[in-house]
C-alpha cells in the first residue's frame, strides 16, 4: 500500500489542493459520497476528511496537500491511516448515508454476499454484517452523551466543533433528532466504546437512568463521567455507588454538579461549562498533571 500511495501521490497535479484516496476494492461507494467529502473539504478546509457511517470510519479518504510529504514517507503494507494519529484534531468526520464506505470486496464470496443483500433491498443490518468494521472506530476523543434534552443537543454541537466522536445514548432518539451526532445507540451499554483516557461521558437523563449510566461509564474506564443534576441528586448517586462498592479511585472520575463554575443557566451555557471542564482535564492529562480541574457547577 505504501508504494501504491507514493506512486499515486507523485502523479497529483502540483496545482491540486487535495487528493482522494479511493480504494479499488470498494465498488459500492456512491458518487454522492465523494461529492459530499469534496464539498465539506472546500467549506471547512480540514487536513483530513473521512466518511463515517453509523459511527464507523470508512473510505475513501480526502487528504489536504499539506499531508502529501508525510504520505510520501510511508513504506510497506501501510496506508494513509498510519498518519491519522498525528492529526486527530484536524480530521473532519463527514456523516454519510452510504454503507458502501465500509464494504471491502476481496473475494468472490464477498461480492456475492453484497450483491445478494443489495438485490433484496437490504441496505442496512445485513450489509453491515458483511462489512469489515474491525478497527474502524473513529479516531480522536470520544464524547458519549446519555439522555434527551436541550443540554444533550448543545453538547453534541460543541463536541462536533471540538472534533470529538459524538455518540448519543437514548432509547427513543434517532440520528435525525440530534444533528451532528456520529451515532445514536438505543441500549445503555458501554462495551462498544474504546475505554480509556480519551472517553468522556455526560449523563443528562433527568433521573431516568442516571445511576446505571454513571456506574457503567465508570466501570468502562471513562476518563470523565459527569452528571447534569442538582447537588442533592449528585450526592444520592455518589452515595449509592459507594454502597455498591465502587472504588474511590473510580469515584474520583465522577463529576457532579457537572461543568466549570461560570454561572451557567441556559442549556447552551451548561453545555459550554461541561465541555470547558472536559477540555481542561484533557489538556492537564496530556501535560502529565494529576491536579483535578473540577470547579463545581
Mean pLDDT: 81
Taken as a percent bin, the fraction of beta residues is 15-25%
Spatial shape: elongated
Which structural class is indicated by helix and strand composition?
alpha/beta
Radius of gyration, in angstroms, nearest whole number: 21 Å
Q: What composes the largest sheet?
A: 6 strands, parallel
Element pattern in H and E: HEHEEEHEHHEHEEEHEHHEH
What is the CATH first-level class name of the largest domain? Alpha Beta
Helix content: 25-40%
Q: What is the third-level CATH name, the topology of the largest domain?
A: Rossmann fold
CATH architecture of the largest domain: 3-Layer(aba) Sandwich
- Low-pLDDT runs: 121-125, 289-297
* Corresponding CATH superfamily of the largest domain: NAD(P)-binding Rossmann-like Domain
Strand order of the largest sheet: 8-7-6-9-10-11
Number of discrete helical segments: 10
Q: Count all strands and give the number.
A: 11
Number of domains: 2
Distance between the termini: 50 Å
